[in-house]
# Entry
Amino acid sequence: MKAFYFLSLAATCLLSGVSAFPALKDPSSPQYAEFLKRAAEIKAGKYAFGDILKRAENASSSLETPGGGFGHRRLTALLNPDNFKYNAKEQYVDLTSDEHKYIPPGPDDLRGPCPGLNILANHGYFNRNGVTNLFQGIDGINKVFGVEYDLALALNAYAVVFNGNILDLSWSIGGPFKSKDLGALEDVLVGEPAGINAHNIYEGDASIVRQDYYAPGSGYDNVELYMPYFKDLLALGNNDATDGKDVYNAELMLQHKANRWHQSVATNPYFFQSAFGGLVVTTAAERFVAEFAANNTVDENGYNRIYLDEKNLLAFFGVEKGASGNLTYTPGTERLLPSWTRRPLAATFGLDDIVLNLLHAVSIDQSLLSLGGNTGKVNSFAGVDAADITGGAVHTADLLSDPQALSCFLFQTTTEEVVPTLLSSIYKDTGKALDFLGKNFNVPFKKLATAGNNPCTRYNTNATGHYSEFPGSKIPRKQDQGVVGTILGGGSD
Ligand code: HEM
# Structure
């Protein structure tokens, strides 16, 4: 194992000739402008990656903004919601009827670490008890937040198989749960389904405002909001409480993610960043705040204006501000304000955007795309050696000079290696689960990885072989989290 940030080298390719990353923190710098241009080209289809844009009919016009570039939010990776006409009817979400008004969870209702999912349950778009299923899950995140179907399917399918009940397709947005065919599951599962709280399966380290599961002093609490981190986020936004101001945009959120990453490395001896939970889920979640918690309104020209101000941010995270400015968090009380409106239907966020978001993240801090962890002491971060990951077959610089290569790498690492290894520790018989994932998780992912007739067979990854080198990669065995056994060379706590 060598201390090696496997993707950092590659970032310089994306930025052609730019080696000083700090310059990218300044949105007015030429380097940043170059990054934006490159991202726009990717989205416009100049590269093979663009071929998979499902929103092609909107893509060309959506890249035009009055001021050039990507408009005031500088969305480097996505179709800018502000390039579409505001459509009050289409963007309306019912948040006040008896069926969908905010109701906090009762004592038996499950809630977990994902504010987006807690909100859907609190507003009745998911079952209010916190146990949802594949179909409701896809429909809910698409209808309310505008998550594209390919991504919605992949996120839900993963939750069913790893955190839910593969027999009736239910899964929990919190901890262990009871469902219809649970009894029969005993035949296929090693233990009961743990829900998405389970650490190192979906949930990972350096989250936005949750503590790391193994961090000293956390009491294994990776679920509840941790106020000091939330205050750090507000401070990054200069505690600006101006109504309607777009304070918590993509750049700010990714900067917060970078800060959290270094904070975890410096305080958690067992910090671990895996390929799926780390690279994909926690980095994407940070972007989800800027994209999905944001409110939308109409500007003076009839176009959409997306913004995330403090008021909407507090509600999204279940935090209330008192008259004296004191903040109070009540677990499970995440909500959308009655005035909240979703992004334009055409500006959905899909799997391709997850990959482009990673490219954006590396422009802010290259560490975000490293794979590995601390080795039992704080500040001992060691990355998995890139040559091992790619089997030496491909120069890792490809990964960031070419989003297609990055998609392929993530696909192969996740589906061909990490997923089967995880499955074998959770299922007595992996056949049914593999079959289900093959159809519902691998298919959309593969479509992305092989867009433009790219065969995507080149990485002979060995990431999981390295996971055991990091003590924080263990999946905990705790009574209140369900039992999923130990994995990847680790023991149980
Ligand atoms: C089926 C869909 C989804 C699943 C299975 C899911 C699952 C998760 C999980 C397991 C985490 C914990 C990750 C971590 O350790 O940081 C998480 C965090 C998060 N999710 Fe989701 N999520 C889904 C959809 C969404 C949507 C639609 C949104 C936005 C509206 C969202 C926003 C977030 C945010 C902001 C966090 C970070 C919370 C924090 O660290 O404080 N998620 N999600």
Q: What stands out?
A: Residues 1-27, 47-77, 387-395, 478-493 have pLDDT under 50 and may be disordered. The chain is about 40% helix and 5% strand.
